Known about the structure:
Blueprint (H helix, E strand, L loop, with lengths): L2 E6 L5 E5 L17 E4 L11 H9 L20
Amino acid sequence: MPTYEYQCHACGHQFERFQGINDAPVASCPECQGNVRRLLSGGGGVIVKGGASAHASQCGREQPCCGRTKRCESPSCHH
């Protein structure tokens, strides 16, 4: 589940909530019940160990076109 950051308009309190993508945004501050807004965040990164970069060097690409570490059956994937 993604983590969303919020800030209260009334008291300035900042907080985070784990929410599903389809969940409604938080509407009130847990400290003062004031209106809140969701902040833009840098997002999360994904770390891939080993496979993808090793395979990419075998097929001559910086990154595999489909993100897999093994050959796939897709006609558009040429590795």
